Amino acid sequence: AKADGGGIFRNFEPAFEQEQLRIRRTEQELLRALERGELTVLYQPQVDVETERIVGFEALVRWDHPTRGRLLPGVFVPIAERSRLITRIDAFVLRRACADAKLLTGVTLSVNLSPINLRAAGIADDILATLRETGFDPNRLELEITESALIDPGAAMPLNRLRESGIRLALDDFGTGHASLVHVRRYPITKIKVDRSFIMNLGIQRDAASIVEYVVRLGRSLGVTVTAEGVETREQLRFLRAFGAHHAQGYLFSPPLPLEAAVKLLECQRSG
Ligand code: C2E
Ligand code: CA
Ligand code: CA
Ligand code: CA
């Protein structure tokens, strides 16, 4: 920092340094969080659009910070991705979710995989080893990846290997990246998840309905499952039904739940 501190840097530099400091501190705390078991996993139901019955759960990580309280992934996943801690976080979530999901019988388990991890050598082997060790059926697992993970041609090998082992592959946040269609055809993608930003505007913005209708039709014609994320209203669900979307996920059905609550919800559905 400049000693006399004139001009715009006077305000900018300390803020920048503070931000760097905050990131470094969060990194150190994250490492400790992994060691002390401060990370937990919640499960959000995904339902069949027609019947509204649960077909799967998405595992979503949370950090129970000793002083800052429960933190959302938006606060720490980007920092973890910079420092490679994301490898350990995703490995932890996968292992925990596979162990937990033995209680979530008869439905799919979806787990997020950071693009950083898809690039790591031996990623497919590591994932398959975790499934073996936890005794989890690969046919019940779905990995959610984003379009940015597919820009790298190196993604083809691990993805093909995972798909050949029975694991399903969902393209997350669909519609927010580039060249998505090409990727759905080039990789063994089995599902697209239409991004919440489109669902949010159904019934509000005329264009949103056209876009979602188009994406659903496209997905169906490519033979993949179409899931809508962030469904919050009955009206949105009506649009999705009319367009022929397969699955939906969102607060209309349930927020992400602790394992026990997710198990109860599933049991409730079975008995009711
Ligand atoms: P995502 O994969 O798109 O997950 C869906 C996010 O939308 C979740 O936020 C979920 O709680 C939220 N959501 C679900 N239904 C609704 C709704 O009706 N309305 C609104 N407004 N939001 C809804 P969350 O749990 O904060 O996760 C944010 C992002 O963090 C995820 O977005 C995903 O990209 C990432 N993430 C979460 N868990 C993991 C993980 O274990 N590994 C990695 N690499 N990323 C993760
Ligand atoms: Ca996801
Ligand atoms: Ca998503
Ligand atoms: Ca999203």
Automatic annotation (TrEMBL):
Residues 23-270 form the EAL domain. This is Diguanylate cyclase (GGDEF)-like protein. The chain holds residues 422 to 693 of 721 of the full protein.
